[in-house]
């Protein structure tokens, strides 16, 4: 047995042997210019539903297939969502916001009364405190471990829906199409129409533009776009 499918089955078998049941976790939105970071947490107890073999990294799936699989995941699995807000991203940084979103997703699943003895997270290892629960990190886990793939899909569909709703109030930025990533369309709109309260002023390209537009910290908001202001420290 070789190739990605063989690796997936092998890793899944190892995890099931070690923990029997576990929670898969993944996040979306770290690289965006606006909006929260979302994390999904999914426990798959039954691997016999037909679409489980269709689960992949959400980035490799088209919108219709993602939406279809998200519906099936919600029907067949235990799942929850956590998020970290733009104010937290700007105040604490993306790394901390990433951790907060994951912790909130895992806690939300616990609050539903779902039992799971371990958490499996996509990507390389980083420091996170989930109590006494064992944590495993798996590189490319979002494409190899069904529970992580499911978490990726749920988080992506939920965040895209959130950005589509925000786009109704801020239609110029194309968030319903670009999910607030730094696309040419989005960046052109930022320059033409300015920034919104949902833009992450701690992200360097956004912070530089905020400084140029004199839209930096007013002493009340935690955003640190003033770090990129070249006009002097007196504007802090």
Structural features, described:
This protein has 9 helices and 5 strands, in the order αββαβααββααααα. With 236 residues, it is α/β, with parallel strands linked by helices. The chain has 2 domains: 3-166, Ribonuclease H-like superfamily/Ribonuclease H (Nucleotidyltransferase, domain 5, 2-Layer Sandwich); 171-229, no CATH class. The chain has a 5-stranded mixed sheet. The radius of gyration is 19 Å and the shape is globular. Residues 228-236 have low confidence and may be disordered.
CATH topology of the largest domain: Nucleotidyltransferase, domain 5
What is the number of helical segments per DSSP (H or I, 4+ residues)?
Answer: 9
The CATH homologous superfamily of the largest domain? Ribonuclease H-like superfamily/Ribonuclease H
Biggest sheet strand line-up: 3-2-1-4-5
C-alpha geometry:
globular
**Structural class category:** alpha/beta
Average pLDDT metric:
89
CATH class category of the largest domain: Alpha Beta
How many structural domains can be distinguished in the coordinates? 2
If you compute it from the alpha carbons, what radius of gyration comes out, rounded to the nearest whole angstrom?
Answer: 19 Å
Write the CATH architecture name of the largest domain.
2-Layer Sandwich
Distance between the amino and carboxyl termini: 60 Å
What characterizes the major β-sheet?
Answer: 5 strands, mixed
Tally the beta strands.
5
How much strand content do the residues show? 5-15%
Q: Stretches where pLDDT falls below 50 for ≥5 residues?
A: 228-236
H and E string: HEEHEHHEEHHHHH
Residues in helix, %: 40-55%
């Amino acid at each position: 047995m070789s190739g990605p499918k063989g690796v997936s089955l092998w890793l899944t078998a190892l995890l099931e042997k070690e923990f029997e049941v576990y929670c898969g976790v993944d996040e979306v939105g770290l690289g965006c210019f606006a909006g929260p970071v979302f994390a999904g947490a999914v426990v798959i107890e039954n691997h016999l539903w037909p679409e489980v073999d269709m689960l992949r990294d959400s980035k490799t799936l088209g919108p219709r297939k993602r939406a279809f699989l998200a519906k099936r995941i919600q029907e067949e699995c235990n799942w929850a969502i956590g998020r970290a807000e733009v104010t937290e991203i700007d105040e604490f940084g993306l790394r901390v916001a990433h951790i907060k979103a994951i912790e909130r997703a895992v806690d939300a699943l616990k609050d539903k009364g779902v039992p799971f003895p371990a958490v499996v997270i996509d990507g390389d290892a980083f420091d996170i405190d989930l109590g006494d629960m064992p944590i495993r990190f798996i590189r490319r886990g979002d494409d190899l471990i069904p529970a992580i793939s499911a978490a990726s899909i749920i988080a992506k569909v939920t965040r895209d829906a959130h950005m589509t709703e925000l786009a109704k109030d801020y239609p110029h930025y194309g968030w319903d199409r670009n999910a607030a990533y730094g696309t040419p369309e989005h960046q052109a709109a930022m320059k033409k129409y300015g920034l919104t309260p949902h833009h992450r002023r701690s992200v360097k390209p956004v912070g530089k533009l905020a400084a140029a537009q004199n839209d930096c910290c007013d002493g009340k908001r935690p955003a640190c776009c003033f770090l990129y202001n070249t006009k002097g420290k007196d504007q802090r």
